[in-house]
Amino acid sequence: MKAYLRKFHIYWLQHFALVWLVTNIFNLVNYAYKLSIWGPMTLNTDGTPITLWQMFVIHNFQKPDYLYLLLFTFLVELNYRYTFKRYNLAIFVGVAIIVAAIGTATSLYLSTNGFQNKYPTNLFEPWTAAAIYAVFYGLIREFFYQRLYRLKVRVERSETELNSLKQQLNPHFLFNTLNYLYGTALQEKAERTAEGIDMVAAMMRYTVAGVQETFVPLNEEIQFIRNYISLQKLRLPAGTAQQVKINIDVPDSAIQIAPMLLLPFIENAFKYGISNDQASTIEVDVGLHENSLGAIITNTIAQGAPHVKGTRSGIDTCKKRLELLYPESHTLKIMPTPTSYSVNLLISLKQ
């Protein structure tokens, strides 16, 4: 939440600075043009014409124009961030009209010292101009945001494909080798080994095919997670004190998801949550409610166990992908304690 508010303040101040700069340039150019055409129309007390610098000082220090710009850009930015992103276009336009009315009234109040002086009776033109600006600001900004978003997705996809190709040594050769090992394990009646090899082959096929796609069917992603967890459980010795509690309730649907978003968190749980000499617990709870996918992944941390070093690159990459693919439509909470590590992820998916 703090990061979101910080980002909002940055965008608001950048918006204000740009509008302030354009407004001042327009005022100065307009005043210089009038000076060149009609000569000085506003004089100092000593009879000398008001200079461009004096006009700049008047607009920014003697008149509270910047206060109006601060408020107006804040309301416009707020309308875009909270209304445009969450509601339909009609509501956004309606709120933009209200924002324009507030901005126009504020400008009038500041320029007339609280409505005590004479003020213009025709407020339709400034109100209309402010409303048009508020609407088109949101539309134009969203247009460029979507273009940038699609570009980032393509770049992210290209980088993922490149990294995948670097890490894969002839997948077909590996698949053939796994098939050979699977057949050998069946001949030797090593059913657990054969089951593990079969799951590894299925996971590899999914990773090779899934990395080529930006989104994959949610059912395939869930099956991949089931295979991974089953494979991890196979390596636990019988009668072990480790407990792995799995609750995955995701019905069949046409919903799609970016591939391998949950895997880094589950990998992290098995990497740090399994101890050979102490009781430990891993809990994975994944559920789908309407179009919202929720995942809670918790693992205990063994006391006194040697620290396992990790680069956290998988978790960091997953955070970046969530920000890129599901901006403002996901929440991620990571809650580490001395004895446990918990991840709570909620993603709003689309059909």
Automatic annotation (TrEMBL):
Taxonomy, superkingdom: Bacteria
Keyword field contains Transmembrane: yes
Per the record, its GO cellular-component terms are: membrane
Q: Name one Pfam family in it.
A: His_kinase
Q: Which Gene3D superfamilies match?
A: Histidine kinase-like ATPase, C-terminal domain
Keywords attached to this entry = Kinase, Membrane, Transferase, Transmembrane, Transmembrane helix
The keyword Membrane is assigned to this record:
yes
Describe the location of the Signal transduction histidine kinase internal region domain by residue ranges: 161-236
InterPro entries noted in UniProt: Bact_2-comp_sensor_kinase (IPR050640), HATPase_C_sf (IPR036890), Sig_transdc_His_kin_internal (IPR010559)
- Which interval of the chain is the signal sequence? none
Q: Which GO terms describe its molecular function?
A: phosphorelay sensor kinase activity
| Transmembrane residue ranges | 12-33, 89-111, 123-144
User: What protein name is recorded for this chain?
Assistant: Histidine kinase
Query: What organism is this sequence from?
Result: Mucilaginibacter terrenus
